[in-house]
Amino acid sequence: MKLITHNMLTSKCLKGVLTGYPLAIKATNIKVNEVDFNPDFISRIIPKLDWEVLWKAADSIGHSEGLPQTIERNYDEDKEFLKKAHRVLLEVEVEEGYLTCPESGRQFPITKGIPNMLLTEAEVQ
Amino acid sequence: MSKRPEHQAPPEFFYNEDEARKYTQNSRIIDIQAQMTERCMELLLLPDDTSCLLLDIGCGSGLSGTVLEEWGHMWIGLDISPSMLDVALERETEGDLVLADMGEGVPFKAGSFDGAVSVSALQWLFNADKKSHQPVKRLYKFFSSLYASLSRSARAVFQFYPENESQLDLVTSQAMKAGFYGGVVVDFPNSAKAKKFFLVLMTGGAAPLPQALGTEESDNSLQIKYAKREACKAARGKPLKNTRAWLLDKKERRRKQGKETKPDTKYTGRKRSGRF
C-alpha cells in the first residue's frame, strides 16, 4: 500500500463510524519501489491531500526525513520538494502490517501490500 | 444452468485461482477487457495531457489498470477477490490495490478521485450472495459513497452486463438517487455480440449523454432496408428470385446440366395478362 492510498483511505463504511480518518499505520515490513517521477501529477495531487496526515503517516513508518511538515505556497516550482513528495507518495510501500480505525479501534490487516477492508455482516451499516 | 458467472457463485469464490489465471493467459479476454477500458476512457472525457488519479472498481488482475497507465494516469483499484489481486501483484501493475466489497461502500475520503472506471463488475451487485445482502441497499450505498469520493465535475463510467430491463432501471434509479446525473449508453444495440452497456454517471450538472457506437444508421424505413437487401444479393452474384434475370440464369444452368430446356424468347419470364 502506497501512502497516497493511505491518505485517501477511511473506515467510514464501518457501522457507527463517522469519518474514520486518518487510519493509523503499524508496519512490520516496508519496501521502496522505484516509480517514474511525474512532477505534474504530484503538483496536481498535493492540493487534494491532507498533508498533515501524510507527514504523520510517513513519520510513523520512519520515512519522513527531509519532508517539510507544512507546504510552502509555491511548492509546484520547488523540484526538490516535489521529488521528496513523489518518493513518499508513490515509492514507499507498506508490505505487511495493519491499519487501525481511529474511532472503533478495528484493525485492517495489510498482506502483500494489499489492505483488507472487507467487513463482516455485523459491521456493515 | 445459466452461463452468467453471477449465478454460479459469489465473486470472491468464482474468481478463484483457476479463473484468475485465465486473466493472464487468455489473450481473447485480455483484448476484450482492454477494448472496453479504452471505450470507458473515451466516455470519461478527462482533460488531455494531465495525469489524473482514477478509481478502478473491480480492478481484478489489473488488465483495465494497464490501459489507464498507458493513458498516463495513476490508479487505485478495488476488488473483492484475493486471487485476482494476487494475479495483479504478479503482473506488477503500477496502481495500488485494496481488497474491499463495493456493496459495503467505497472506503475513500471525499473528493479523492478525478474519475472512476469499472469493467464488467457492476452486475455482481444485483445478486444477494449472503442472507444479509439487499441488492437495492447495496447499490445505493455503493453509489452514494462513490459520489462522495469523486471530485466535482468528475465522471464515473461502468461497463456492465445487465440481465434485463428491470436491472437497468434499478441501477439508474439508485445512481440518480445518490445524486448522479447520466444514464446508459448502449454501443452496437443491433448486434448480439458487440452490444455493450455503459453506465455514464456525471457529478457536475446535467450534460448530454455521449453518442453510442454503431447507431449512426438513423433512417430505418422499409424501402431502405429492402434496397440494402437487393444490393447485397447483387453483390453475391445471384439475381433476385422470380425475376426474368433469375429465370434466364436458371435455364442456362439446366442447359449446362444437359437437361431439356425450352429456348429463350421474348415471352420468357413475361407477366401473364389479366385476361388469363
TrEMBL record, chain A:
Coiled coil: none annotated. This is Multifunctional methyltransferase subunit TRM112-like protein. The lineage of its organism: Eukaryota, Metazoa, Ecdysozoa, Arthropoda, Hexapoda. Transmembrane segments: none annotated. It is found in: Cytoplasm, Perinuclear region; Nucleus, Nucleoplasm. One of its GO terms (cellular component) is nucleoplasm. It comes from Vanessa tameamea (Kamehameha butterfly). Belongs to the TRM112 family. One of its GO terms (molecular function) is protein heterodimerization activity. GO terms for biological process: rRNA (guanine-N7)-methylation; tRNA methylation. Pfam families: Trm112p. Its main location: cytoplasm. Keywords: Cytoplasm, Nucleus.
UniProtKB/TrEMBL annotation, chain B:
GO terms for molecular function: rRNA (guanine) methyltransferase activity. It catalyses: a guanosine in 18S rRNA + S-adenosyl-L-methionine = an N(7)-methylguanosine in 18S rRNA + S-adenosyl-L-homocysteine. One of its GO terms (biological process) is rRNA (guanine-N7)-methylation. Residues 258-267 have a biased composition (Basic and acidic residues). It is found in: Cytoplasm; Nucleus. Residues 201-273 form the 18S rRNA (guanine(1575)-N(7))-methyltransferase Bud23 C-terminal domain. It comes from Vanessa tameamea. This is 18S rRNA (guanine-N(7))-methyltransferase. Its main location: cytoplasm. Residues 244-276 are annotated as: Disordered.
